[in-house]
Amino acid sequence: MGIAERMPKRPYVLALIGYLAIPMVIVAGARVFRLLDPEMARGWADYTRGYHLLEMARRGVLMATGGLALVLWILCCYLVLKARQRSLRWLALATAGSFGFSVIAALRDRAPAPGDLYQRFIGKLKIYWRVPLEIAQFVSVWWLAYEAMVVQRELEIRYESHMTGTPVATIVEQQSAESGMYAGGEGMEVLYLVPLIYLVWPVLFNLAGHLCSRRSRVELGDR
Hints:
Layout: H1 3-6, H2 10-35, H3 47-83, H4 97-106, H5 117-123, H6 127-164, H7 168-177, H8 179-222
């Protein structure tokens, strides 16, 4: 089996790339938003006009950033459906965010690639095995996303403590005082990580399967 046959379908790869681009777009938009400080109009001949223009530009950047992120999200869902040759009616689930993507990710590929071991595996499962598997995967993905967020939070706290010399306990106390803001950000991280895990999981499954198959062939050849 050639390398090309082991690779995910092109639409699936593009879906993964597009999804990974979402945080980059948001970060870039946030930086431009901060750079467009309306107070820069102090050096302009017409301060009022300059202030309003910069304020409008900031709002435009904010709207463009959110719109582009939304387009990338819908495109990601569309490409996953296209890769698995499913009806575009499933695209309505994109409005449900990460929960909707959990359903899209569970859809079986109607024409899997020859090297797609994951689709071959779930395609052989009976319905009474497939349903518990998808439920277990749903719980595992959300648990893993939450734990990844917790690990990231701990690493950020320790990094900040190391860079500023502030005790870890003090940083934790400060974050607890602003728990609402941090909880919102951490919730968004979990919601982002869930589809990412769903996208990466079949790729890792296929990679592990091909490595195991290759090792088995090598061991049989040595006998």
